[in-house]
Amino acid sequence: MKAVTTQQMLEAGAEIILANTYHLFLQPGHEFVSRHGGLHKMIHWNRPLLTDSGGFQIFSLGHGGVANEIKGKCNCNRPKTLLKIDEGGAHFRSYVDGQRCYLTPEKSIEIQRGLGADLILTLDECTPFHAKKQHTEYSMERSHRWELRSFQEFERHSDGRQALYGIVQGGVYEDLRERSGHFVAEQEFFGQAIGGSLGETKEQMHDVVSMTCQYVCKTRPTHLLGIGGISDILNGVKNGIDTFDCVHPTRLARHGGALAHPDENDRKEYINLKNAQFSEDMRPIDENCSCYCCQNFSRAYIHYLFRAREMLGGQLLTIHNVTFMMRLAREIRSMIRNGNFSEKTHFRLPSQSK
RNA sequence: GGUGAGGUAUCCAAGUGGCUAAAGGAUGCAGACUGUAAAUCUGUCGAGCUUCGCUCUUCGAGCGUUCGAAUCGCUCCCUCACCA
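YS: structure for the whole thing
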């Protein structure tokens, strides 16, 4: 987690952290992590960990600009590091030292075994949004083959301490999602994750998630990869998603955004503390929030910290945003238990005017 | 008092006759951010308007040369450095 310690994550109420196979593989390397006795020990976290397979990074970086291509946006100003994908795996260049690397399903599982996360993912191929349907289909089929190989490699060394998730692909196409959902359900995965392109807009994403959830094994835990807006989570939960992971809360925090429940008349899910309107706002970000940031500091102070480019600003907002997400999850679980969950739930933010 | 350097938009700073409402920074104002190469990136930034374009006023001040001046000349004002 950028900008916060695992101790602070604990205090924020976090119960699980996602770590990244791709980045840890390139730097510092999974052997290095193993020498520490595994990820849990190295990062001082004795709760559950999930590792991504590395597929997303290879392909998103390969297409020249992180998630943009997969998400349907075009921002191609970064050097492309993906060299070649073949049936065996993905050839790519390390962005750290330029060295050629080869990630296969077996290698991904081996790395994740070395890292020692509790929940791990199969290697899949992430198809960009702009791919034609035929390509998406071909790519999905290859992902399926890779998932089988991942599973075999996983089984070969499994000591029962790790659990493997399969990944449902198929882009925005319902027939492909149906096939992929069924395929993953037929394998003996512990859980399943929904990956791949979810479309271009938020609306389409919600539709694709809802549609895909129909074809997913209902008795296994279901994870939605990479998604974490407030409304996205409410929509996902409505459709049966159990877990989410997302950089948005922490990245937003480092960029000056503080999560706040959306106003029913305003689709924005955060306030931008860098904005001039907060320069004299002495209230906490959210007076109902129990986090260290809201309990002790004003919006004006956070505003000043960002103005002064003090990294403490990003740290405090990260604490707030993670705390916020944890509270959101608790409230959702509570609503489900009480039988009154609604994805239309809105929580009013304290008035923004002074 | 002497000698030298210089005064450009909110600030710093290019520009030494037309392509200049004026490069580039910074600040300011706002936007983006969703399996993290992001404590990042983008837009905007003289004034006004009927704002995919038009009008007005700018480069210390004034006067002049020129078809045309931030750019050339003269006078004045003001900074800074060194020497007395």
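YS: worth flagging: Confidence is low (pLDDT under 50) at residues 72-76, 348-354 of chain A.
IM: good catch. Also The first strand of chain A starts at residue 17 and ends at 20.
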